[in-house]
Specification:
The protein is mainly α. The chain is built from 25 helices and ten strands. A hairpin with a 2-residue loop joins strand 6 and strand 7. The chain is globular.
Length: 572
């Protein structure tokens, strides 16, 4: 009986589907009416050699048309699901860890266009909803109290539907939905008791698309367009999932209730409040986990005979180093891209510093450490990235070149020839990595790609496959000269610190970071209708001395965030 009620309720609650999302083109991208993104330095002095930024597209310089771009409906990721049931139900069991892995596209696991629901995932949703409903009953009775003896069980059940539903579906329920869910409660109560009715409501609500997806329906299209401005509740959800990866908190719900989130300045104020909160840290970690492939550290397989002292414990410490470093910079007022790439310090504890062979703190706690600047500077010299973008038994100029080309320059590399035999050169104690890879890339069919990758990757050769500094290899002094070709900062460099300075000057790198946050923050790739949005984001990033926090605030001020497009042939 209960299963059929769940199926019936889901059918009743689906309603007409349309999905979309984003506000007016306003030059004050930070919502204050002043200069966009006023906080933060890059960690570098102004550089007159920085390439001239491209001008905004001509259609964006006058009063542009509102173009939100694509507005796909976004299903909660495993990360978001666990965070949401924690904040909704007080459940910290992280049931989504057992779900099938999220599909990835453009480097991230939240791309709406790549995410599907098969029968296996639907079954996991059903099982999780049942367990969550049962395990949270006591907390629900406490959190949503009602005197059944005074007003009756049916009235209390309806009150629960309205109060719990408002939080679970992240907006007030209209009368039709309240009636449908009240009927679910009554069916559960008649088949069991009051508690059974509450549990059945929770089970149904957690399996409904209104919970599993960020559904954006309703609204009137702007005159003569297929564009709808989001309501305050939808903006609250977009803010909370962008900046915290979870449902809105009490302050956002209150702001939505008052209608204040229809104002760009209030949205920017809320964004700054949220970014200053500790709840922003997990979302930051989740982004960098994927952008920099840090999630791969735990699965690294290194030749421990060749790299004595390395093990999974060191890998975890390396990842903690990078996460601590990134968050320290991003959370600071001067948390700019330049500092991420060139800062002459990192964060280590005694064990990690000893592994690197550098002076460091004496305890288990992580503290700021300043290795020799000529050897280590910024992200690109940290052991996590050097280990990930290497092979099990040797460093890899190709993988390290790809790190720069794909993650920092957002370039698309051609596939290797169909007949290419992709085998790394065998380690030879009499040959350096540069010698071995020169032979490897001599094949004319491979040379095209290798000319893009190897000259960059060879500049990392002072770091072995586990990120430790080395001066020699095969009894020869390391040659860390490299070259960047085909970019706005093309030219030679010697070693990672010089490469980092070069990349920190690059408008292409800055644009790539904006693009990476666009893809992660909006859950989709950029399209032709996003030209003005991406241009405004790049201008805001530049005006804030490339402050990441200011970029995140700017993400909340664009057409892509504040409006949605009406699905073709669908309801608003």
């Amino acid at each position: 009986m209960k299963f059929s009620v769940v199926r019936l309720a889901a059918f009743v609650l689906l309603g007409p589907w349309a999905c979309s999302g984003q506000i007016e083109g306003d030059p004050s991208i930070d919502g204050t009416g002043g200069t966009p993104g006023t906080g933060g330095g890059s960690g570098m002095e102004p550089d007159p050699t920085r390439p001239t930024p491209p001008p905004p597209p001509s259609e964006c310089t006058a009063k542009p048309a509102i173009r939100p771009g694509a507005s796909p409906m976004r299903r909660l990721t495993r990360f978001e699901y666990d965070n949401t049931v924690r904040d909704l139900l007080g459940d910290t069991s992280q049931p989504a860890r057992l779900f099938p892995p999220d599909e990835e596209a453009l480097g991230f696991d939240n791309n709406a266009e790549a995410r599907t629901v098969g029968s296996l995932l639907a079954e996991y949703y059903m099982n999780a909803a049942e367990q969550l409903a049962e395990g949270s009953l006591a907390r629900l009775r406490t959190g949503y109290p009602c005197d059944t003896a005074s007003v009756g069980e049916s009235a209390c059940g309806r009150r629960f539907v309205e109060a719990f539903g408002k939080r679970a579906w992240r907006r007030p329920l209209p009368a039709a939905e309240v009636d449908a869910m009240a009927a679910v409660f009554e069916a559960g109560r008649r088949g069991g008791d009051y508690n059974t009715g509450l549990q059945l409501v929770v089970r149904v609500m957690l399996q409904a698309p209104q919970f599993l997806y960020r559904v954006e329906l309703g609204g009137t299209p702007l005159a003569g367009t297929a564009v709808v401005q989001l309501d305050a509740w939808q903006v609250a959800s977009r803010l909370s999932y962008l900046l915290w990866g979870t449902m809105p908190d009490a302050a956002l719900f209150a702001a939505a209730e008052s209608g204040g989130l229809l104002n760009k300045g209030e949205i920017a104020t809320q964004a700054r409040r949220m970014l200053a909160d500790k709840n922003a840290r997990p979302m930051m970690d989740h982004f960098h986990d994927q952008w920099l492939a840090l999630e791969e550290v735990d699965a690294l397989d290194k030749d421990v005979k060749r790299f004595v002292g390395y093990g999974p414990d060191i890998g975890k410490l390396m990842k903690q180093e990078t996460m601590t470093f990134v968050n320290a910079i991003v959370s600071a007022d001067q948390g700019g891209l330049g500092a991420l790439l060139t800062a002459p310090y990192s964060y280590m504890n005694a064990k990690l510093a000893t592994f690197y062979g550098v002076p460091g703190p004496t305890g288990t706690a992580f503290a700021q450490t300043s290795p020799e600047p000529a050897r280590r500077a910024g992200l690109l010299s940290q052991g996590s990235l050097m280990s990930i973008f290497s092979l099990a038994d040797q460093s890899s100029p190709v993988e390290r070149g790809k790190l720069v080309r794909l993650q920092l320059l957002c370039e698309v590399l051609p596939n290797p020839p169909a007949d290419a035999v992709i085998v790394p050169p065998v380690v030879n104690p009499n040959l350096t990595t540069r010698d071995r890879w020169a032979q490897h890339s001599a094949n004319p069919s491979c040379a095209g790609c290798h000319r893009m990758l190897d000259p960059i990757g060879l500049g990392f050769e002072n770091y072995d496959a586990v990120g430790r500094w080395r001066d020699t290899e095969a009894r020869k002094t390391i040659d860390a000269r490299g070259e960047v070709v085909g970019t706005d900062v093309a030219g030679p460099f010697n070693g990672v610190p010089e490469l980092a300075v070069k990349l920190a000057r690059s408008e292409q790198v800055a644009g790539c970071v904006v693009r990476q946050w666009f893809r992660f923050g909006y859950g989709r790739g950029e399209g032709t209708d996003d030209a003005c949005t991406t241009s405004a984001l790049e201008q805001a990033f530049r005006a804030s001395s490339q402050s990441v926090r200011s970029l995140l605030v700017a993400l909340t001020q664009t057409d892509a965030f504040l409006y949605r497009t009406v699905a073709t042939g669908g309801a608003p």
